[in-house]
Amino acid sequence: MLAGVGFALAAGLMWGLVFVGPLMLPEYPVAWQVVGRYLAFGMLAVPLAWMDRNELRQLSRADWLEAFKLTLIGNFLYYMCLASAIKRAGAPLPTMVIGTLPVVISISANILNRKRDGVLPWHQLVPCIAVILLGIGLVNHVEMSAVMGATQSDFSTYLTGAALALCAVVCWTWYPLRNAAWLRQHADRSPRVWATAQGFATLPVALIGFLLLALAPATTDQDFPKPFGPRPIAFIGLMLAIGFFASWLGTRCWNEASQRLPTALAGQLIVFETLAALAYAFLLRGALPHALTLAGIALLILGVVAALRIQPSKAAVTNPPAQG
């Protein structure tokens, strides 16, 4: 369990980077940032795939289809919604909406995966969830208060950002449950290789998206220089950094955690992503968090620490390793 928590923490630190990318490149449309990130992820996966080619050959057509679905929903659609939400509402609100993932995933996993992982007793789990929700509410209250005096159009944009963040929550509730199920059913497969497989499956989709954006006639972004925008070095460098650290390394660390922890518990550890994203956002702002924000963060940590002490009510059922 200690190793699993460590891998989940590392994944959270990596994934927190994606929340500041749209803020560091505000002049770049969301579609360009999404395609750029996953094109970098796919290209980085090519040499890694060559190194792991023998193990990748063992993946069946169904496995590759699963990798494609995971990357399409858990990567492209999720990040499109998240980046759009950040552009409309700033980083902290989407960060805290995404912060509900520990709650949503824990409840979903406790219902759907009870036979495989055992059940985290509800009378112990619910208080932890309540504390996490209270922490999320405190931080969200601070951010909502900051826009209450804004114009109606700005407030509408803020609400649109919140709705897009909710769509991102749906995508990333599905992803870890499905991803963990595959990893548990294929316990003989390397989490590193599975992360590389997802990156390799990303490449053709990202390449097609990049070509469509590069060749499409200009519409509202007539002054946007193609194919790498007004700051090509910054764009390429940031996309490579996010593609490697957030996409490949973060996915690998999460895969390692998913093989070691019950999904209901691992889901709560996604709070590390929320905490990392908040820390990066406030560093980028050059401002200290509000006292209520700090109190909300403290409650998030308290809820997760309490959840880590909960033991499943019965031993998890281990599926036999898949053959070939």
Question: Top keywords for this entry?
Answer:
single chain, 324 residues, 77% helix, mainly alpha
Describe the protein in words.
- The chain is mostly helical and 324 residues long.
- It has one domain (2-308).
- The protein has helices at residues 2-15, 21-24, 30-51, 53-56, 61-89, 92-98, 101-112, 114-117, 122-147, 152-185, 191-215, 232-260, 263-268, 271-285, 291-308.
- It is globular.
- Mean pLDDT is 82; it is low at 315-324.
Major β-sheet, in short?
Answer: none
Please give the radius of gyration in angstroms.
20 Å
Span of the ends, CA to CA: 28 Å
- Mean pLDDT over all positions: 82
> How many helix segments?
15
Give the low-confidence spans.
315-324
Residues in β-strands, percent: under 5%
Helical content band: over 70%
- The strand count comes to 0
Q: In total, how many domains does the architecture comprise?
A: 1
Structural class: mainly alpha
- 3D shape: globular
Taken in chain order, the helices and strands follow as HHHHHHHHHHHHHHH
